Amino acid sequence: MNIVVCAKQVVDVGEIKVNPSTNKPVLEGIPRKISDIDKNAMEEAIRIKEKLGGKITAMTVGPPDARERIKELLAMGADEGVLIEAPENADYHLVSRALARGIEKMGDVDIVLCGEASIDMFSGQVGPRIAGHLRIPQLTYAFRLEADEGKIRADRNMGDTMVISESTYPVVVTVTKEINEPRLPSLMQILGSANKPLNEWKMGDLGLEGEAPRVTEVDLSGVSMERKNVIFKDDLDEAVNELADRLAKEGVTG
Amino acid sequence: MIMMVLIYSDTEKGALELLSKGRELADAAGRKVSVVITGPDAGSRAKRFIEHGADRVILAAPSLEGFKAEEIADVLEGIVKDEKEDVILISSTKNGKELAPRLAAMLDAGCVTDATSIDIDSGRLRVERTVYSGNAVAKEEFASTPAVITVPGKAFDPLPPDPSRTGEVIEAAVQPGGHGSRIIEVKKMVSEGVNVEDAEIIVSCGRGFKSSDDLKMLEELADTLNGVTLGCSRPIAADLKWLSDDHWIGLSGHKVKPKLYVACGISGQIQHVAGMRDSGIIVAINKDPDAPIFNSADYGIVGDLYQVIPKLVEALKARK
Ligand SMILES: Cc1cc2nc3c(=O)[nH]c(=O)nc-3n(C[C@H](O)[C@H](O)[C@H](O)COP(=O)(O)OP(=O)(O)OC[C@H]3O[C@@H](n4cnc5c(N)ncnc54)[C@H](O)[C@@H]3O)c2cc1C
Ligand SMILES: Nc1ncnc2c1ncn2[C@@H]1O[C@H](COP(=O)(O)O)[C@@H](O)[C@H]1O
Questions:
Q1: Domain of residue A250, residue span
Q2: Going along chain A, which residue ranges are E strands?
């Protein structure tokens, strides 16, 4: 199986603070990481490779420092990495077009794995978009996968329903957090990842020079949450009494 | 942008909500709103959409049963190209969210998912959506058409039905192509029919509970506080399946705004907080003093929930 895992470098959203004077979220100086569910996608790719053999390529559209994220995926088990340099104002059209072209450039890809959604934007766009660009089937929200030689079967959490679907290859699959527990790379794997190939492509290499975004961000404003933060830590009996009094005073006990 | 609006939803309720927004956008430009419905009984449902504001109902692919994103995307692509629709509104159900971006890619179009507002600002189509797990709101503008937008449930109220409204019902010749995927089985998820979104008081449980039997403790608390609905974190619904998805609160679950939210044994990761940050008063019970939930709480008790909850039930009873 020739597998591509699409993974995104994101800011650690748990660390974001809103600057009260500008009312903007502060994104600089916040740790970068691989979007959580993309590690589940990577883990699933490794399990498919363990069963059916093949090759895993980790692909990302991002800034130069996203190279470090690809190295983490190489340590986890990817055989090769591809970093596509993100253009200024990249929107979902540009990111997905670039990934789809990158996948075409590689040739003969059987499975494209994505997360159900990225942790920062939570759009769920990229997987279905790649499938739309390549005009191939999509299996979304998979919480269980069974890949075989000629076809792949997915149990999918579609909210009100659980849908079991199957598809021939090539196919795009998006996975949920529940599908597996991503492995941690060993020290040997981390050291070994330095010798694995990491290709860097530009939009021009993919025939997308000058391609315009379809959506632009015109404003980003922070939403801060002010809470009283009254925390009782010591005597439990006192604490529950105090809490019951406060809740009664707030008039929220029903 | 000429503002021909096309609406598709996998549920009738969703389509009626979208119609109300679609009507507003099209009216401002003196244009039309069309609704696409597929499947064998589509014709019999057309009238309802016209009463609720549609100018046209487009019946497509009568042979289609159920929902497959690949097929519906083919149908909508054909209609958009033939009819030159330029704003496409789709419900943010899971089906809608896998359909909209696929369709957008096929049309080389922009797409914004989960839009909370849609407006025309100096002739430009602008939408807002929540990003960074509730930490920010982004305002985005479409630079080209068509524009594909998904809208969460209840964002807009349906228009009151007007039985005297008239509209066209047309049949579209488009047919879906063949695809390598197929649906084997659709299972209805067990639903307990709870509605956390409209609840006044929510008591929520997380992984701090050791077994599903222990959730009974919460029922006692619920009996003491009147009118409580049970909520939970993602792992309780998605991994452990102790409660149905109806109870799941957070970024990927339901968004709630009760006057009182009590989080028991929930660590308070930002993806959980994203779903309940608009609550009136937030109370946290957690044995870890460093749990992030305390930063998002008005009142907190650091302690073992197995001790705290029974004591709290007594204290609340004593005040009745
Ligand atoms: C893309 C994405 C979307 C997500 N969407 C959601 C979402 O919609 N909703 C959601 O909830 N999560 C969501 N998550 C998961 C989220 O990041 C957390 O993993 C999850 O909320 C943790 O659930 P928890 O607090 O129940 O469990 P844990 O994080 O394991 O926390 C359990 C807590 O219980 C406390 N505890 C243990 N024993 C006791 C005791 N005896 N008494 C008192 N306290 C005790 C512990 O101190 C701990 O703080 C999402 C994650 C991702 C990546
Ligand atoms: N810039 C990117 N590079 C590679 N993969 C991406 C990128 N953005 C999103 N993805 C993939 O698409 C999934 C959904 O992301 P999103 O559409 O942003 O919610 C992610 O989990 C990744 O698998």
A1: 224-254
A2: 2-6, 9-11, 17-19, 24-26, 32-34, 55-62, 80-85, 111-115, 138-147, 152-157, 161-167, 171-175, 198-201, 215-222, 230-232
B74/B106 Cα distance (integer angstroms): 9
Could you tell me the sign of the dihedral formed by the alpha carbons of B296, B300, B304, B310, in that order? negative
Looking at the 3D structure of chain A, how many domains does it have? 2
A159 and A62 in a single domain? The answer is yes
Question: Do A161 and A229 lie in a common domain?
Answer: no
Q: ipTM of this predicted complex?
A: 0.97
Give the residue from A72, A59, A178, A68 showing the smallest Cα distance to A130. A59
Check the CA dihedral A15-A18-A24-A28 and report its sign. Answer: negative
3-state secondary structure at position B82:
helix
pLDDT at B1 over 80: no
pLDDT, one tens digit per residue, over A89-115 is 899 999 999 999 999 999 999 999 999
Chain A nearest-CA distance from B167, in A, is 32
Instruction: Report helix, strand or coil for B114.
Output: coil
Identify all chain B residues contacting A96, using CB atoms and an 8 Å cutoff: 101, 105
The reply to whether A135 touches chain B by the CB within 8 Å rule is yes
Rounded Cα–Cα distance for residues A32 and A35 (Å) = 9
Domain-embedded: residue A179: yes
Q: What is the pLDDT of residues A207-246, one digit of tens each?
A: 999 999 999 999 999 998 899 999 999 999 999 999 999 9
Gap from B168 CA to chain A (nearest CA, Å) = 31
* pTM confidence score: 0.97
Task: Set out the domains of chain B in order of their start, with CATH numbers.
Answer: 5-171 (3.40.50.620), 196-319 (3.40.50.1220)
- Cβ atoms of B37 and B45 within 8 Å: the answer is yes
A122 and A193: one domain? Answer: yes
Q: What is the domain-level CATH number for residue A91?
A: 3.40.50.620
